[in-house]
User: What shape does this take?
Amino acid sequence: MSARRASSALVILAVVVGCTAPTGVPAQEEVLTLQVAAAKAPCVGEMVDSCLQVRAPDEDAWRLFYDPIEGFQHEEGVRYTLEVGRRTVPNPPADGSAYAYRLIRIIDREPPAG
Assistant: This one.
């Protein structure tokens, strides 16, 4: 590898590393805490489906959540508290979300009482 290519590779690596916050969360992501209800609810987007119900920890009312959370698989009957990363999707499709979500960690998992 030439010295010029090696130098370019180091600059690219420095840019990529510089885009990541110290916590391992990409700098362009907003970190959110979401509570996820134990049951999904019927919802209508492009077609009838079932959606997660979510709320912020300081909210009382559940709201429908139409977007997938990358890395998260909901188990019916289990309530979760999640830490998720949210980033803006550049040029989202007309019927798509302006945001993309990914699971950072499961803070709490409450199995059904019984």
Summary: The chain has one domain: 24-110. The chain is about 15% helix and 40% strand. The first strand starts at residue 30 and ends at 36. Helices lie at 3-18.
